[in-house]
Design a protein that fits this description.
Elements: H1 2-35, E1 43-50, E2 62-69, E3 77-84, H2 92-98, E4 102-109, H3 110-119, E5 124-129, H4 133-147, E6 153-155, H5 165-171, E7 177-178, H6 187-195, H7 200-209, H8 227-235, E8 237-239, E9 242-243, E10 245-252, H9 266-284, H10 287-314, H11 331-339, H12 349-366, H13 376-404
Helix pairs in contact: 1-4, 6-7, 9-13, 10-11, 12-13
Length: 405
């Protein structure tokens, strides 16, 4: 009951905040509309890039658009932020897993935006864009159109439609070309640059859930889903040898915050589990212990398999299908783990272990040709499963041969 009351007040607080933001957005919109009636020569448009934060969803940094009057910022200075989402919306977790998270374009004062990032000790870098008055007018019009209540929400897509890709799509111009060196890097490698080593469990989950499509090289424009790649892209985005960025400088500069990684990383955790399983399997050799090990091990992997299956086949997330992790982490592992709790079904244990061993060996040999990265943690889990299946099969064959003699 206590938590329901707290949740109610949090929801009411969030509703009030959203209403206030929409009022502010409306008022700022009225101000921006008045810009069309005056000279835009003094209006500056810039791209703001913010450093990563301490939370996993802040690990990749952030991008926003700033529009202000350079002669008098107090007169007009606003941020258009495509990265606003609501933790309290109905079924947020379920919608997030299914890839149905809606983000909002928020218009807010630049001072409050900067204050938030300074309080979190995250650097803020500004790139002033070299735009004509006509380009500025078009951009402001599109932003205000997108900020309308009926248009401000959009279906978030981590790789292809996020806080960095939206600003880029607004300023993209066919007259400009990228003149720098194109990095040869895959989507997964780009993610791992920011998730490792500070967020090892987040990295494990990401590598488990995103599939083979994430291992193809990203084009230079596709790389702009990461804010810092967009920042570097704009420096080399040129027309007639002139960059679209007229000036770049730090609004606030600090050392990049380093999140202390947990002592128990996935690699450490699954290494310990592997050692424990080896000891319990080959040293104790207790039949009841064997069942207990398999119940926990296969149930755990089966739960991972259910998540992989759901995200791969039921979600709208990009780059999650095909996902070859489904071969070793699948719902069948969960059914087997739970079936061991039913004694009459234990007589079929060896049959499943034969099947599991066969599938795992195929997967291991197929890794040579499978176009998908597999993490060290996943390899440790696979070897743990193999040890259990090998032991049970070997024990069964030993007993069978002994009986024949």
């Amino acid at each position: 009951m206590f938590f329901k009351i707290i949740r109610y007040f949090c929801n009411q607080l969030f509703v009030n905040i959203i209403m206030k933001k929409r009022i502010i957005t409306f008022l700022l919109g009225l101000i921006s509309i008045s810009l069309f009636a005056q000279d835009l020569e003094n209006i500056e448009v810039s791209i703001i890039t913010c450093d990563p934060g301490t939370e996993i969803y802040e690990a990749f940094g952030h991008t926003a658009i700033r529009i202000y009057d350079k002669t008098n910022p107090y007169n007009y200075d606003v941020i258009y932020n495509y990265g606003v989402f609501d933790f309290y919306q109905d079924n947020f977790i379920a919608r997030f897993v299914k890839g149905q998270t809606d983000y909002t374009l928020a218009c807010q004062s630049t001072r409050s935006f900067f204050r938030n990032y300074k309080n979190e000790n995250r650097s803020i870098y500004e790139q002033t864009l070299n735009l004509t008055e006509e380009q500025k007018k078009h951009l402001i019009y599109k932003l205000e159109e997108n900020a309308l209540p009926e248009n401000c929400e959009y279906r978030y897509n981590f790789f292809f439609d996020n806080c960095a890709t939206r600003p880029y799509n607004l300023i993209k111009n066919d007259q400009y070309t990228f003149t720098g060196k194109i990095p040869e890097i895959t989507f997964r490698e780009m993610i791992m640059q920011y998730s490792s080593p500070n967020y090892p469990w987040g990295e494990f989950g990401i590598n488990l859930l995103i599939g083979a499509p994430a291992d193809r090289p990203a084009s230079i424009e596709e790389q702009n889903f990461i804010p810092f790649y967009l920042k570097n892209f704009l420096e080399n985005y040129k027309k007639d040898d002139q960059s679209i960025v007229s000036e770049g400088h730090y609004i606030y500069h600090t050392e990049t915050a380093v999140t202390q990684p947990p002592f128990i990383t996935p690699t450490v955790c699954f290494s310990i589990i592997l050692i424990i399983v080896i000891i319990l399997t080959f040293v104790l050799r207790n039949k009841e212990w064997n069942y207990i090990i398999d119940v926990f091990l296969f149930t755990f992997v089966g739960i991972l398999g259910c998540v992989v299956f759901y995200v791969s086949f039921c979600s709208e997330h990009p780059c999650v299908f095909p996902n070859y992790n489904i071969i070793w982490a699948n719902p069948l592992q969960l059914l087997f783990g739970l079936s061991l709790l039913i004694k009459p079904l234990r007589k079929y244990t060896t049959n499943y272990h034969f099947f599991n061993e066969f599938i795992l060996f195929i997967y291991i040999f197929a890794l040579i040709v499978i176009p998908q990265y597999i993490s060290k943690s996943a390899i440790l889990i696979i070897f743990t499963l193999l040890i259990r299946s090998e032991f049970v099969i070997g024990q069964k064959l030993f007993v069978k041969n002994k009986t024949k003699k």
